[in-house]
């Protein structure tokens, strides 16, 4: 999967915005203002950071050694870095959905209601 396909998928999700809060080279995707994905646009090969359940993060790193690593410049417990070109698109989509769901689950009840209304 290339970064443009990843971007399009993220933006297709309900309540998602894209921002450049860390400068012009780091694209951040947020749901209801909370970050669930980011990508360094100048990183080669293309990479994205996604939030992940801590236990699942460890098993993914073991299963996809080198293609999924602890989150670059992020909490190593809650974030993974994925090498987009080394992983099946289906897995990237699944892990993007997982990251999105983790963030949505932590939203306030009011924010979840607003998201559902979109």
Layout of helices and strands, plus pairs?
Elements: H1 3-12, E1 16-19, E2 26-31, E3 34-40, E4 47-51, H2 54-63, E5 68-70, E6 79-83, H3 89-106, H4 109-117
Antiparallel strand pairs: 1-2, 2-3, 3-4, 4-6, 5-6
Describe the structure.
By secondary structure, the chain is an alpha+beta fold. It has a single domain (3-117), classed as Aspartate Aminotransferase, domain 1, CATH 3.90.1150. Helix content is 40%, strand content 25%. It is built from four helices and six strands; from the N terminus they run H-E-E-E-E-H-E-E-H-H. A hairpin with a 6-residue loop joins strand 3 and strand 4 (47-51). The longest helix has 18 residues, at 89-106. The radius of gyration is 14 Å and the shape is globular. The protein starts with a helix and ends with a helix.
Molecular shape = globular
Strand content: 25-35%
Provide the gyration radius in Å: 14 Å
Regions with pLDDT < 50 over 5+ consecutive residues?
none
Q: What is the domain total for the residues? A: 1
Q: In this structure, how is the largest beta sheet organized? A: 6 strands, antiparallel
Number of strands: 6
CATH structural fold name: Aspartate Aminotransferase, domain 1
What CATH architecture label applies? Answer: Alpha-Beta Complex
Q: How many helices?
A: 4
In round numbers, the mean pLDDT is 95
Strand order of the largest sheet: 1-2-3-4-6-5
- How much helix, percentage-wise, in residues? 25-40%
CATH class: Alpha Beta
Order of helices and strands: HEEEEHEEHH
| Helix-and-strand structural type | alpha+beta
Distance between the termini: 28 Å
């Amino acid at each position: 999967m290339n970064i443009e396909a990843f971007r399009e998928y993220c933006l297709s999700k309900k309540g998602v915005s894209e921002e450049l809060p860390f400068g012009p080279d780091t694209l951040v995707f947020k749901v209801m203002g909370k970050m669930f994905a980011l990508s360094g646009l100048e990183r080669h090969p293309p990479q994205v950071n996604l939030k992940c359940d801590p236990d699942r993060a460890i098993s993914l790193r073991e299963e996809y050694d080198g293609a999924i690593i602890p989150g670059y410049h992020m909490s190593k417990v809650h974030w993974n870095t994925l090498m987009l070109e080394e992983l099946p698109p289906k897995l990237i989509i699944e892990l993007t959905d997982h990251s999105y769901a983790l963030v949505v689950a932590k939203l306030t009840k009011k924010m979840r209601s607003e998201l559902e209304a979109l």
